[in-house]
């Protein structure tokens, strides 16, 4: 028998219509250290079990009224926290009788008259089952409590991430900006709560505007924090807070060369930001009177130009991402837009979007999508593009952030 010090006191219920048999067993079990109660039949035993659920039951099989096997079925069906171990006392020893008892829910048998040594052995086996069940219950409670704590932490983090997503979306101040001769539209969809893509613009003068698309490596909070910091360098209309702008001697604001801006960002990431992240970027300066647009590309996908007549061009210098190497030269190039032309700066979340078989959309697929959107413009074009992209991905979803800037050089009114 297991040491009682390892368990809280085991409660044993003796059920027998023989008062003498109950007294003999009760005295023996009390000497062993059990807490014992008696019942003269199944009905009385069930009443006792309602208010005093025993850990272990010793019940005679043959009793008037409710016999031991019927009582066993009722006992096993009762709701309880721990396991109730049931031993049938019987003079029956045939295999069919043993099978019937086991099918009725009995855990073990003792042949009458009860042998003291065998009784101790059967009780020890029952105690081991009860001990294991109690340990399992204790461990389950610890696991349950831990899961409750993890759920609470998860819920708290989820709320924080929802707020973080709202803040990140607020970095894109406007989804659409209309000028006299041009317009800008933006879309930004994170693969998770928050992501590493950023799109935006900054005014330069009444005839010039700057806009950009950025894709920080990785996903999640650290990438989102880096995009927030980069937004601080590029979105302000003031040269004091925007490294893409500067003052002329007469105090007017002008744009710095995009290649110099990206070179400065490269230096800042390597020297001032303690991060393993890098990012790709394409920065554009557009003259809204002449259509001349100067771009600098650093590892970002090529810009796409859809001409008024429907022709599509995708070209650029490629370049290295920002934050990987020191003293990198970033090359500028020019695109001449005509009235009615559209320029799209997109992240690789579009061109590298997979379908259910893992096939990426690619530049050709992106071009075909844009061709199908002939006649669309502004936010509606970007919304339709995202819809077509989700249709392409089907159940695969967007594994990467999806972002784009649409610049439209408008015809004269």
What does this protein structure show overall?
- The protein is about 40% helix and about 25% strand.
- The protein contains ten helices and 18 strands.
- Helix 2 packs parallel to helix 3.
- It is rod-shaped, with a radius of gyration of 39 Å.
- The chain is of the alpha+beta class and about 425 residues long.
- The termini are far apart.
- The chain has two domains: about 140 residues, Response regulator (Rossmann fold, 3-Layer(aba) Sandwich), CATH 3.40.50.2300; about 240 residues, Phosphatase 2c, domain 1 (4-Layer Sandwich).
- About 35% of the residues are buried.
- Strands 6-7-18-17-14-15 form a six-stranded antiparallel sheet. A five-stranded parallel sheet has the order 2-1-3-4-5, with helices on both faces.
Number of helices: 10
Q: What portion of residues is helical?
A: 25-40%
| CATH class value of the largest domain | Alpha Beta
Here the CATH topology of the largest domain equals Phosphatase 2c, domain 1
Tell me, rounded to a whole number, the average pLDDT. 88
Sheet-strand content, in percent, reads: 15-25%
Quick structural overview:
Helices cover 38% and strands 24% of the residues.
